[in-house]
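Can't paste images in this forum, so I'm doing it all in text. The chain is below; anyone willing to post the predicted structure tokens underneath?
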Amino acid sequence: MKFTAIAIATVIALAGCSSARKATVESAPIEALNAQKLSSSFKRQGIKIEWDCKYFTGVFDATCIKNEIKAIEVTGYAPSFGASEVMRETAFKVAHDQALDKLIRFVKQDISSSRVTNTIAKNIEKAEDNIKRKIKRDEEFEMTDEEAMKDTNIAVRKNTSDTVRTMTDSVRTNAQGIIKGARAIEEEIVGPQTVKVVIRWDTNSERASNYLRSRFIKQ
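Text version of the structure:
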């Protein structure tokens, strides 16, 4: 009976600790969206270039005399905005396109900049006449200095000027080309909702692409 009582007391104590810990976790404050910090669980990578070394060189990277480029690897990232399979596959496609875009922009990129300033001015004149006596349209009349000081016939002019100035500063980039032999060699989930795709181009894959085009595509 003593052992049974001790075991029951131990179970109750553990259950109490578990419920207390659960209550502490659930009562944690929730941060607002604009107060959350952006964090990344992976290291961003760009473009990696592999060179051919000349004969009898290249034992180490420092001793490699670079001759010709033999391969290029480009990494692209994309958020999935969800954990479903559809969102994941879509994110992989977007990351694939991002890597290809980064590769073609590394090869060639056209940049144009333009600045346009527009100034629009509008002048408005408002007239207001306060007349206390009847005057015919073609009638000529004379006023003394004392009469002019009185509020008998006053013409008030109000001029307003509205000026609007807008300036548009735009930078346009354009990259276009044909990439032959590039293929995805790595597709990986690197974050809670982030995927990575690595595109590789090398001389062998380009030769294979040219060979297949000559065999399968009609000239």
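Residues 100 and 216 are 24 Å apart (CA to CA). Residues 1-27 have pLDDT under 50 and may be disordered.
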